[in-house]
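Our preliminary data section would be incomplete without showing what the modeling component actually yields. Below, a chain of 335 amino acids is followed by its predicted structure, encoded as tokens that our downstream tools consume directly.
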Amino acid sequence: MRSSVSPVPLTDRFGRVHTDLRVSLTDRCNLRCTYCMPAEGLNWLPRAEVLTDDEVVRLARIAVERLGITSLRLTGGEPLLRRGLPDLIARLSSLTPAPHLSLTTNGIGLARTATALKTAGLDRVNVSLDTLRADRFKDITRRDRLPDVLDGLKAARAAGLNPVKINAVPVRGVNDDEITDLTAFAVDHGYRMRFIESMPLDAQGAWDRDRMITAAEILDRLATRWTLTPAARDNNAPAEEWHLDGTDTTVGVIASVTRPFCGNCDRVRLTADGQLRNCLFATTETDLRTLLRSGADDTRIETAWRTSVSGKGPGHTINTTDFRQPDRPMSAIGG
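Predicted structure:
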């Protein structure tokens, strides 16, 4: 019988309590976004190195039962490429206590899977969409799939995966002229818009700070069309939110670079090959897959997890001369 005793919080040396686990289900993707990876793609992980469903569920169970994780975000790569995803979600939703389950996707496969994912226990989705222009979408992603993404958004809302959030990364000279258009689209269709400052997590190592559209710039552009009223903020949430006066929605800005929120970070990340990362910008990892496959019991895995989080630094160092970009790009780390 499993213990009903409340788990000891997963806390680091700065007193931050971690309740949010981001689980990458694959490093593979069916887009080739210019700010993420080269046109030819990357060397994908060998299948044997990717965690099995049983391994994902076991680590999630340890996180929920023993470490106090309350939220699971499934990411990639593109998580909809994971075979049998509804079955995996059903197993994760059956954990006790039941975690909040969300998924970050490019939306391409969402039209045909949204209902099954909701039925399996998924609570909501975030869909990446950087432009509403078909020609620009093709230029950015190197694929002509904008209609599939728009259909996926509609299907997600119809299936009840609400609130459906749209994530966009505005880049100077690429799509920054669509900030208000994307927001208006979200308002008109009942979605929630999120803008994310571009970060140095691309496989090419070509991130350019001068091309990053800052949170302040995003808000200035939104203010040309709407009156913005600050919304109450969850201190652990990455997005600062504003109500758009005259509408029923909010817009969020995730200012990871110019307004870092590391002091309230409650997230840990598990890569598709079972490496635990205590920070998105970590330069070290803890190998949970080897522990799993060598027969380690739950207590040993829990201890490794707690040790990793206890060593978490105070925050990223993007704005210092000491910054070193992680060896893995975003597609391999998971959002």
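The chain has one domain: 20-333. The CA atoms of residues 36 and 202 lie 5 Å apart. Preliminary results of this kind motivate Aim 1 of the renewal.
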